[in-house]
């Protein structure tokens, strides 16, 4: 079959259009709205924007220790997995305590300090949180739940393959908490010292980057 020269432009346009439609389209960046939080926990919206949101399932892990005024459960690590709230089958990060091996300059005293840690489940990049600002404001936080928090970034590390999703983090927020409080009745005497409690909790975590 012979194709007339006059039909070539129209045919080329049709093929190009069909080919373009068949190509996978790039994923759109998700627009994540910052959560409503107590005033003290706000992250400056003029300088920062949330880029990752995860819903955590896990435990707050405590050990009973003596203190100056008695005995108290002390948190020795959280142990949680964060999932995509729009796709609960997609794991985003794990959450635990670990030594900060890559502190943000000029903070040499951070080197090796145990910090809240999040590690990306795909590229293994890491962010460490700094000193947490807590809130138990009853207008936001349930009385039987652990505090809401905002933590500045204290250190970041790319994954071994160069992946760096979490290395852009400037702040982390823990909000919408349920559960996680230590059972005080199980840490009241010397006989209880060393007892551990693994308390289930859930929370939403928001990760911010520079705008």
Question: Main traits of this protein?
Answer:
mainly beta; 9 strands; 7% helix
Give a structural overview.
- An eight-stranded antiparallel beta barrel has the order 1-2-3-4-5-7-8-9.
- The longest helix is centred in the first third of the chain and has 15 residues, at 8-22.
- The chain contains one helix and nine strands.
- It has one helix at 8-22; strands at residues 48-67, 70-84, 87-99, 114-120, 126-129, 133-135, 148-157, 169-179, 196-210.
- The chain is globular and about 50 Å long.
- Helix content is 7%, strand content 46%.
- The chain has one domain.
- With 211 residues, the chain is mainly β.
- The protein starts with 7 loop residues before the first helix and ends with a strand.
Write the layout of secondary structure elements.
Layout: H1 8-22, E1 48-67, E2 70-84, E3 87-99, E4 114-120, E5 126-129, E6 133-135, E7 148-157, E8 169-179, E9 196-210
Antiparallel strand pairs: 1-2, 1-9, 2-3, 3-4, 4-5, 5-7, 6-7, 7-8, 8-9
